[in-house]
Amino acid sequence: TISTLLQGKKCSLTEAKDVIDISSEIEFLSLYPIINKDSKLLKSQNSPKIDPKLSYLSFTPGQCISTISLGDLEVSQWKMCREFGRRGSCQGEFEFARGIAAPQPGEIAVADVYNQRVMIRSNEGKYKKLIPLYSYPQDVAAICNHDNQLVVVDDTKYVKVFDKKNKLAFQFPTVPQSEVDRTEVNLCSVAVRKDGTILVGDVKRMVWTEHRPNDGQLLHTVPVPTPPWFLAVDDYTDRVIVNGVNEQRVYVVSANDTAQSIIEPTIDGQSVQVCSGVCSDKSGIYIAVSNRLGYGHIHHYDLDGIFLACLAQGLQFPYGITFTSDGQLAVADRFSIKMYHKMRRHQNDTE
User: Which regions form coiled coils (predicted)?
Assistant: First the structure.
């Protein structure tokens, strides 16, 4: 225990002080084997590790039914509350739902890749509108503090920004205009900082680019250690989460563009085959992972990359994930959208 380790350190300190006070070199040398042994033993002791999942435990006051009352233990659990969509090209159907975002309260936008469109649905799954693109959309993101704009990256060299009426407001390249024709890009991911700055992941050049939200002007080009197939920004620390999909690892990059931590998700103790969608909130980082069709998971990590929980299993093949305006977790799972909400139950814990 911690108290035992502390007691041992105090004894070692007292012993060290006694040795210093010894005037005779002979006495010091005679005590050396004992001191050396005790020091090595103390050095070999490790502090007890704390289970990070215990950070999720919280207590509410409860009635005392015995001499000691711990109240009611609050246990949080995510449950799928609805699923909508199926494979197809008709209204409400998807032909590869990849990116997902929440552009306005009560709405989600889904990049429907092979149907060449972005579909707008309510959080309850009701069909609202289609944005035809005539290109293959890869990802979407919302600029919630700039007129609820929707940002779309597709298989072209231009990022598209739509206004809250889902009309094209403007588009911009991720390189200087003079270099567009001679520069190969592959834009696959997009995320937005809290101040509205747009981040675009380019897996061809292994960079993300940063752009002004009002006109798309290029601000920075940041090299990344893995192809940025998926991006997310943590609004609370301004760190960027970069997912390389087939590299079985996710990088958390600090505000000064240096890799701060690496997350290597596992399923049953084995490295996952694919890491895909990522998102973040004040409770940590959420990552969609899969080993094969029908075995997709959603994992939750703290902001330092320590595993906390598996929120969902048995997904077809999850790609983009995002939080809705009412706190639900929306998952683009190939041909459908799955919605999860957090349930809290009270478990009486007394002794």
Answer: none
